[in-house]
């Protein structure tokens, strides 16, 4: 049906215009879930799931969705147990418009805190019922299974959850001049690089026999922060980071929450927020993994470029950790196009907007290692596999900024994960072929892999083949190297797919 509408838009006009963008409006959702994963001979793990899923990416399959999800431990004894991966499924009406059934599958990699996760591969099928409460909110409940095929975790249980309904807008460069949209609105999204620094511990931080270890080092995490602005100066926020200073490689935090921004003038603002989520790993005392943060600070906005400093408190309600923290972030504000109409396809005048080229990639990474020894005296696996995700923002036709993460799912390193920030260069080789080079700096750890303090860099040479206007094939060959001390220096091979998610932004 969607493809037919596109054809009708084109055929209904004799004269074509280069002054418009055609925009597809796809149903999307932010999905939260709660699972109690049954464990043998230890307390069960309470998982919280976060995910973003998009419907209609396959032609004429508007009930089929694909997305990304993460699952983090909040209770039990496995703090830092975090899994990241891809999801897909089908959702259809059951008896009435307000009640749906959802049959789906998650595949991902991760683990941590010594859990019996094997190589890290997690499989989670689910069958849920979803009840629509309003146009923005639905509640869910159903049955799901969590299984680590190469490990010892195998649980069948009830899950509960909630969905926030939203939309994704996919932009085409040109269209006919028919039916310009007059309902355009713009929602602000902030994307920032984040340095999170934990210090002045009143509890913890490390797993020792002392409740307060005042000689412990400052723990610094490198990551990304995403804010989605709503009405009345409120916003939703997600923060994710991995340790690169403090000798706690493998320590991670994945938090979400709400915040409030109070403008002082056109370039200065006051800020406050509260977050909750999962954290742990790296021998840090986070108990079951539940983490909370409250913070306040000040920000500067100059031509939509952002600089912000916040001071707050980090606390593990189920663990022996409490500290102050200092967040420093640098980023960019985007006014993303949306509309209030019910039209699946609209046309927007180029005079009112600019097109920002974003893309999202998912790929399989193979690490090929030589004969070095890991932290517990084992020789590194010659070959093991990870699942990877990359978000890319094009600066111009030759350069782009990238943020990426990879998570082990096969081998002896199920708890191993990395997060990266960097720059990529393109060179056009032929009509649909490009050569790429990229350099990234990041943090990684877990699984007894020796990355020193946790900071590392990577470089790679790659190729991209355009399949159609939406999809491309990607391949990379490169190497990982720790910044100091570590001995993990594998060759990397990436193979995957990239989807264009170009967005219109306010001029």
Polypeptide structure, described:
The chain is mainly β. It has three domains: 2-10 and 17-170, Porin (Beta Barrel); 186-337, Porin (Beta Barrel); 355-506, Porin. It is 2% helix and 66% strand. It has one helix and 29 strands. It has an eight-stranded antiparallel beta barrel with strand order 2-3-4-5-6-7-8-9. Strands 11-12-13-14-15-16-17-18 form an eight-stranded antiparallel β-barrel. It has an eight-stranded antiparallel β-barrel with strand order 21-22-23-24-25-26-27-28. A hairpin with a 4-residue loop joins strand 22 and strand 23. The longest helix has 10 residues, at 2-11. Residues 1-17 have low confidence and may be disordered.
Instruction: Count up the domains.
Output: 3
Which class best fits the helix and strand makeup? mainly beta
Overall pLDDT level? 88
Low-confidence sequence ranges: 1-17
Shape type: globular
Total of helices:
1
Order of helices and strands: HEEEEEEEEEEEEEEEEEEEEEEEEEEEEE
The value of Rg in angstroms is 23 Å
Estimated helix fraction: under 10%
Condensed summary:
This is DUF5723 domain-containing protein. The protein is mostly beta strands and 507 residues long.
What brief labels describe this structure?
507 residues, mainly beta, Porin, 3 domains, eight-stranded antiparallel barrel, 66% strand, DUF5723 domain-containing protein
SSE layout and pairing:
Blueprint: H1 2-11, E1 16-17, E2 20-37, E3 45-55, E4 64-75, E5 82-94, E6 96-111, E7 121-132, E8 137-147, E9 154-172, E10 175-176, E11 184-203, E12 219-229, E13 234-245, E14 252-263, E15 268-280, E16 290-302, E17 305-316, E18 321-339, E19 345-349, E20 353-356, E21 358-368, E22 383-394, E23 399-410, E24 417-430, E25 433-445, E26 455-466, E27 471-482, E28 491-500, E29 503-506
Antiparallel strand pairs: 1-10, 2-3, 2-9, 2-19, 3-4, 4-5, 5-6, 6-7, 7-8, 8-9, 11-12, 11-18, 12-13, 13-14, 14-15, 15-16, 16-17, 17-18, 20-29, 21-22, 21-28, 22-23, 23-24, 24-25, 25-26, 26-27, 27-28
């Amino acid at each position: 049906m969607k493809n037919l509408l596109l054809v009708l838009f084109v055929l209904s006009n004799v004269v074509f215009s280069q002054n418009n963008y055609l925009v597809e409006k796809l149903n999307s959702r932010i999905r939260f879930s709660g699972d109690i994963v049954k464990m043998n001979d230890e307390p069960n793990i309470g998982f919280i799931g976060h995910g973003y899923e998009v419907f209609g990416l396959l032609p004429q399959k508007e009930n089929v969705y694909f997305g990304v999800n993460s699952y983090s431990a909040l209770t039990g004894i496995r703090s830092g147990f975090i899994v990241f991966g891809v999801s897909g499924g089908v959702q259809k009406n059951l008896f009435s418009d307000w009640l749906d059934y959802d049959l789906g599958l998650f595949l991902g990699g991760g683990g941590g805190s010594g859990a019996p996760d094997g190589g890290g591969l997690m499989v989670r099928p689910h069958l849920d019922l979803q009840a629509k409460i309003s146009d923005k909110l639905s509640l869910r409940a159903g049955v799901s299974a969590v299984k680590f095929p190469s490990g010892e975790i195998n649980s069948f249980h009830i899950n509960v959850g909630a969905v926030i309904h939203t939309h994704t807008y996919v932009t085409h460069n040109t269209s006919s001049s028919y039916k310009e949209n007059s309902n355009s609105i713009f929602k602000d999204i902030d994307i920032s690089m984040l340095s999170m620094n934990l210090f002045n511990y009143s509890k913890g931080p490390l797993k020792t026999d002392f409740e307060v270890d005042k000689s412990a080092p400052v723990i610094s995490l490198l990551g990304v922060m995403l804010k989605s602005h709503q009405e009345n100066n409120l916003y939703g926020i997600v923060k994710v980071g991995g340790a690169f200073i403090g000798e706690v490689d493998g320590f991670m935090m994945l938090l979400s929450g709400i915040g409030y921004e109070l403008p002082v003038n056109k370039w200065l603002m006051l800020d406050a927020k509260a977050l909750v989520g999962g954290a742990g790993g790296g021998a840090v005392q986070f108990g079951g993994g539940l983490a909370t943060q409250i913070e306040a600070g000040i920000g500067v906005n100059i031509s939509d470029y952002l600089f912000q400093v916040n001071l707050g408190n980090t606390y593990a309600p189920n663990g022996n950790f409490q500290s102050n923290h200092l967040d420093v972030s640098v980023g960019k504000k985007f006014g993303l196009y949306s509309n209030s109409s019910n039209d699946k396809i609209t046309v927007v005048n180029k005079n009112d907007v600019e097109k920002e080229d974003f893309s999202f990639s998912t790929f399989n990474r193979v690490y090929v290692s030589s004969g070095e020894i890991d932290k517990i005296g084992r020789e590194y696996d010659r070959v093991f596999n990870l699942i990877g995700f990359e978000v890319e923002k094009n600066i111009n036709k030759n350069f782009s900024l990238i943020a990426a993460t990879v998570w082990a799912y096969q081998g002896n390193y199920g708890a191993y994960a990395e997060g990266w920030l960097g720059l990529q260069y393109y060179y056009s080789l032929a009509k649909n072929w490009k050569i790429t080079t990229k350099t990234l700096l990041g943090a990684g750890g877990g699984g007894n892999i020796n990355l020193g303090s946790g900071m590392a860099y990577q470089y790679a040479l790659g190729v991209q083949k355009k399949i159609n206007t939406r999809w491309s094939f990607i391949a990379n060959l490169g190497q990982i190297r720790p910044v100091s001390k570590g001995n993990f220096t594998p060759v990397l091979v990436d193979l995957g797919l990239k989807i264009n998610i170009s967005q219109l932004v306010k001029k």
